[in-house]
Amino acid sequence: MQESIKREIRKKADLFREKCKLSRYGIIDLFKECERCGYKLIRYPLGENADLGFVLKKDNDIIIFTNTSNRLSREIFTLAHEIGHIILHQNMNMHFVDDKTTIAGRCNDENEQEANYFAACLLMPSEEVNRFLDLELPNFRDDGLSAMDIARMMSEFNVSFEMVLNRLENLEKIDAAQRLILDTEKNKLRVSNLLKSVGGNARLNCSSNEVDLPYEYLDCVIYNYNHNAIPKETLERALLYYKLTIEDVSDRLVEHTDADDDLESLIGGL
């Protein structure tokens, strides 16, 4: 990637980050920032081997999906990656589906590489990485970094152990040999134990299996039910995702006398 393109991506990542609520070093909750920007965010557990996420534009809505079966730190990076597609590639016919290959940076697709770089700059801007190292680990050049130091950075920036290593190596704070040592130490001690030992955010290393759907979709389900497009059983299943029951929305429902609806109508209606 040309340096001039990287410079423009860094500027755009900085502009987005300026709108976010920040902790000492990282973005507090990128999921909330996404919603504040007006994006329709869907979080759902599809399984570890499924796609990590996607972004698409439908009518006037920009829809982002993230797979909550993955570790939270991975899901956060996926979200940052999808935001990168929105910011960088908004003039294209927006429809990007990302798997472990594209997110990991092993893809030759230029758009995917740009989205990865945007995510890295958004979550761990070089200025904040330098500030962390200067204030928290002033002797790291002489003493080196430990796996516990990386775990502290994980928790401060809300990213994965692997991403911290990637970012430090790309910023030339560590070399390939140092990275290998840190990676070996991580495998020996395990990330969950490292996070606990530094009082970090242990949730980063676990999948949330969160189900989070925009409430506009609930309106769509109720509309379809009221117009005989879906049966009551389908409405009840949809309400479960919102932790609601029929009684909770009874004032919005139309009573039906004909129970001959089928699931095919739902597919057509949605």
Helix content: 40-55%
Number of helices: 14
Query: Structural class, judged by helices and strands?
Result: alpha+beta
Secondary-structure element series: HHEEEHEHHHHHHHHHHH
Q: Which regions contain 5 or more consecutive residues with pLDDT less than 50?
A: 266-270
Which SSEs are present, and which pair or pack?
Elements: H1 3-18, H2 30-36, E1 40-44, E2 53-58, E3 61-67, H3 72-88, E4 95-98, H4 100-103, H5 110-123, H6 126-136, H7 140-143, H8 147-157, H9 161-170, H10 176-189, H11 191-197, H12 215-226, H13 232-241, H14 263-269
Parallel strand pairs: 1-3
Antiparallel strand pairs: 2-3, 2-4
Helix pairs in contact: 1-5, 3-5, 8-9, 8-11, 9-10, 12-13
Please describe the structure with a list of short key phrases separated by commas or semicolons.
alpha+beta; Arc Repressor Mutant, subunit A; 3 domains; 14 helices
Explain what you see.
With 270 residues, the protein is of the alpha+beta class. It folds into three domains: 121 residues, Arc Repressor Mutant, subunit A; 80 residues, no CATH class; 55 residues, no CATH class. It has 14 helices and four strands. The protein has a four-stranded mixed β-sheet. Strand 2 and strand 3 form a beta hairpin. Helix 1 crosses helix 5, helix 8 crosses helix 9 and helix 12 packs antiparallel against helix 13. The C terminus is likely disordered.
Short note summarizing the structure:
The protein is α+β, with helices and mostly antiparallel strands and 270 residues long. The protein has 3 domains: 121 residues, Orthogonal Bundle (Arc Repressor Mutant, subunit A); 80 residues, no CATH class; 55 residues, no CATH class. The protein contains 14 helices and 4 strands.
